[in-house]
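Can't paste images in this forum, so I'm doing it all in text. The chain is below; anyone willing to post the predicted structure tokens underneath?
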Amino acid sequence: MLTCFRRVTVILIALAILPSSARAWGCSGHHIIALIAERHLNPRAMAATQELLKAVPVAPDLSRFCKDGQADPFVSAATWADDVKKLEGTGTWHYVDIPRGESSPSLEPYCEPIGPLENGSRRGCIISAIRDQRAVLGNGTPVERARALRYLIHLIGDLHQPLHVSNNGDRGGNCVPLHFAKKPEVGNLHSLWDSGILDSALTARHLTEEDFAEQMDRRYREKFAEWTKSQPVERWALEVHEVGVQIAYGKLQPAVPVEPANVIADCTAESAKVRALNILIGDDYERFAMEAIEPLLVRAGYRLAGILNQLWP
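Text version of the structure:
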């Protein structure tokens, strides 16, 4: 167990120096989702997406966080939306704050429609942004469509990260400090789900992103038709939200109380309250989390492929 703690801790020390406002799934998770999606694009969708991304490349002076040298423009596009969210004022497009105790199928109270750029930011949430960018991809100019495609590749991934669709008055787990064995705190619940658990698993299994994507696709391939059935994006969000409730929050020990749905996040106060619980992440939590993460990554890849195959049948 101590070996596991050390391995996760090393990874999360690196995460701790990054902004806690989240890059859902980190570099590896978003790349894996794109790799899985590519395996299921029909020939027309594959050709159209590659042509569009190559014809309208990313600005060469844009600072890319994931400096991985991805030669495949589709996979490289998977993290572009995080790199431009401050420039384009689209930070709220990456999540929807569904309260932990919410069970209603209506998400309208938590999601504003897309709005124009005002004071450096735009209105909207991940649900309205996916709808908006899907429409642009079908009807915009080449530049607009390439931008929309890059957003869709990323946002479908974000939608399947439980703490991008779940909130407990803690900014999606950003205000939930965690401990690993006797080490000092090195991260928070959100960063753990963004990258910590997945990167730890890739390291322990000695797998590349490509290897992992192939393994997961092989394991869940028979689910493709079921997971790509036409459903509203809200249904997908609620499905992933339930994972956040039952696993991301629900498996924490000691338990974190459910906050009222209308509570306004006070990160300092929430962090102090949770820190007093001395939450310890161990093997059991890591196992529960990874068992949830694996199918979520695959669902995201399959659903992204399904959307693009519908646009280019």
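Residues 2-311 form a domain with the P1 Nuclease fold (CATH 1.10.575.10). The longest helix spans residues 283-311.
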